[in-house]
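Lecture notes, structural biology module. Today: joint structure prediction for complexes of two components.
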Amino acid sequence: MTSVHAWSYWLIGRIDWHSFAFVRAWRDPSLSEIIAAGAAALVVIGALAVIGGVTWLGKWRYLWKEWLTSVDHKKIGIMYVVIALVMLTRALIEAVLMRTQQAIAVNHSGILSPEHFGQLFSTHGSIMIFFMAMPFLTGLINYVMPLQIGARDVAFPVMNSISLGLTAAGAAIMMVSLVIGKFSTGGWSGYPPYTEMAFNSGVGPDYWIWAVTLSSIGTTMTGINFAVTIYKLRTAGMHLFRMPLFCWTSLCTSILMIFAMPPLTLATLMLALDRYLDFHFFTNDLGGNMMNYANLFWLFGHPEVYILILPAFGVYSEVISTFATKQLYGYKSLVYATMAIAVLSFTVWLHHFFTMGQNANINAFFGIATMTIGIPTGVKVYDWILTMYRGRVRFTVPMLYAIAFIVTFVIGGMSGIILAIPPLDYVVHNTLFLVAHFHNMLIPGLLYGMIAGYQFWFPKAFGFRLDERWGRISFACWVTGFYLAFMPLYVLGAMGMPRRMAAVFQPEYRPWLLIAGLGGFVLLAALASLFVQLWVSVRKREENRVFVGDPWDSRALEWSVSAPPPEFNFATLPEVRGPDAFGGVKERKQAYLPPPRYGDIEMPANSTLGPVLGIAGGAVAFGLVWYIWWLAIVGMLICIGAVIAGSFRRDTHRTIPADEVAETIGHWLSRAAEARAIPRPLETTSANQGLAESAT
Amino acid sequence: MIRRGAAGWMLLVALMPALAGCAGTPSFLLPAGPIASDQRHLFFVVIALMMIVVLPVFLGLPWVLWRYRQGNDKSDYQPKWSFSKPLEFAIWGVPVLVVVALAWQVWTQTHKLDPYKRLEGRGDPIEVQAVGLDWKWLFIYPRQGIATVNRLVVPAGRPVHISLTSDTVMQSLMIPRLGGQIYAMAGMRTQLNLIADRPGRYLGENTQYNGKGFHLQKFDADAVTPAQFDRWIAQARAGRPALDAERYAQLAKQSVPDEPMVFGSVPPDLFAGIIDKYDEAAPKKAQFQEASSK
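The predicted structure, tokenised, for the full assembly:
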């Protein structure tokens, strides 16, 4: 090793010219490399555009003070959703690339090299789970749950900001991997021994390990935060069994996060020990055994499915009750079903590897355990339908998603039962049938739910309704796109086509792959129309304002405050007298009354800890990926130092004086008094100012 | 014999187009052996059972949406109606009963179709040892003393007992038209039992991603008559090179063979050696046995 080389290694680790996507495309200008360089260019241009835009507008100070260092649960929630939407865009484009590749690559090499294809399914899965689904649901819970239980913030506001920082760092690491280096080809589950040094010594698996580790640590803290918030910060009279169902599902999801994320953190760290320090947890030789990884990973992985789906169940419960203009049917039944699902989700992990050679007793046990989850899930579906029964169903955009969810999710449940039966799993496991199944669960069971929640609560968060027409267009595309893209995969899987194929050699597969490819483009159009909807709605915001705060005549507490809510949420913490807290207030005609008196309100003060730990944590991850040890050490020292320094801080609160509270609330109440109360058929017109007829 | 209920038949008719689409593909819906055939039967039974809970949703939901839509003032509107004991019993009870029925199927069929269970057929089982390599399958016939790469030849009607391992990352072997799928892992031995009913060529594949040659890791499973099988063995023994250590080392490297290979002889302990290679204790065990036998 020359001294120059040694110095450069000390400074930049194993980065060399060839690490950059642009250089690789320059040296080997194949279509696959050019696509990779194009993606890298998009990341660089996107980052420059954001930096340039903020500088141009002179908004750095605003961004830092009002958003990045803010510990307001509402702002943190919005930032989580922004991350989710950015990552959704990337991962959906990757999905379309893969669908295009498979549609073309029938007896042909297609447009992507097999290695590039491997990276794409790995990033697509990792992003969709860890950096789209998780931030989206965390964002929604963050925004909505404290409002629903009548709290001013979460229990640990600074920790909330740290969780966001770590998740953002993980997402940033995923983005950087497009520009420098190559991502893992080991899939979203990163199974060793394939991801061990013996078979993949490049930076790919390391990128995967550290991005996932950052996210899993952030998520564990989020789970603790939400659970404590729900246990400790409910307002007077908000008994557990008076909470809106979304809070129940949030609670169950948080408990699952607390118990299910540590096995993942452990599994990725053990894999890191194998890779960095020559341990042998999961290697082929020296006593390692990858089966231990499979068990640890799915001990996280199966509860994870319910971490993802339960919040959406909560959204649907709110949406269906609101737009069926009726109380939720079987509230307690739904709560018990949710808890049953949460508990059972820890007893089924083995069904992810029926084909690993366990004996028939074990496989049968886990097969039956898996099917029992179908019972509470089925009950929930019937409860939702019975909620609409004897109601007045309004077909608004969130409701359309809820309806599409029920139908689609039931199909997915059916294929899930098929996969839960070991002898059937033997013939469809690892095929596109499996891929069709989990997309069939997660697209209606997570994505539709998150979009429904976004449509439902957007007016609450930003003070104006989203455009109905574009909402419907987007909905139509999400649903058609889903059926076109994934129903053919069931057929292909039953025809014996394995998942993750860079090319296929059965001409019989072609028509189905073409339909699925078309579906991919329809889904892309769906996402595009979601952004168009946002654009159109922002432009028309003045005519769609719902400042009074209750555009959908809904029943939970978040609708009892202005839209957007004041920073302190409630002038005085509300007292709850029954389930459907705000519904009861409206029934008693006590909505929009000034509080008896105004007092000073203590709110948590901004903290720089979140962004500092996010940036330093990201630096540690990047340093470890590339063997830039000084960077990893400095990053780690900053993390530890910042936490210690933060613990000495005493001015952790700031006071909002009573006058300011009185002025804010007074302004809102006077507007509520002037507003016209509208009947439901007018709710999607500009007559809707957020005051429902039922309140007057 | 395949027994099939009325519901199964109706489903089969309903799924005809999909089945027709399967023609020519390696699908378990076109079974060529008893295992895949039972799996197909079970597939339809399960779908039929599921219809008990699924159909009420598909029929009930549109009806509820239509009848209780906003603007239809003829339907009764009861915003406070939120519980009914009989309905509650039905929505918990019916799924429980369906799951009990399914659980019975799971328990019996998982034991009946256990890939480790030896099968009855015409004659003794053919022993095959399968080794997953990057990106090819090595099949060793220990009793016949020959080996092949990417070609599995078995006599139709006779049970086949496959022992699997991997000399690289994890892989999974599946011949969909015969049934089954089981992982192959380094340092471990898993098993798969299959029978081909009739002569034919069936596609076999690795379904577990193992790198850039994954999509090319396919092989033909040829079921032949017993006479053809004996002739094939004899030809292999006579005219084919031996699979010695050097050739194996070459084979174990990452590559996709252009065409199937046949080897006329193999070292008797090759398969056990590939497994023991990853077991630190194995050489010591061997030394111990050697020492103790003296």
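Point to remember: The two ends of chain B are 56 Å apart (CA to CA).
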